[in-house]
Design a protein that fits this description.
Layout: E1 2-4, E2 12-14, E3 23-24, E4 27-28, E5 32-33, H1 44-54
Antiparallel strand pairs: 1-2, 1-5, 3-4
């Protein structure tokens, strides 16, 4: 997961998987990696498509 704390674009938390480029209308942005997922990788493509077509989804993140 990546945190962009704001500045030239709004604050964002991103779940990045696969090849990604983090950018806004003003160009490429630098984010800070702050969480690494260690399981349930098979669900990420499904979640990505759901968010693309249905919008924001509720998720729960738990410490192991």
């Amino acid at each position: 997961m990546i945190l962009y704390p704001g500045g030239i674009s709004e604050t964002e938390i991103l779940l990045a998987y696969g090849g990604v480029q983090f950018a806004s209308k003003v160009g490429q942005l630098a984010g800070n990696h702050f969480i690494t997922l260690t399981s349930a990788f098979d669900d990420l493509p499904k979640l990505g498509k759901m968010v693309l077509w249905e919008g924001a989804q509720a998720i729960r993140i738990e410490a192991a």
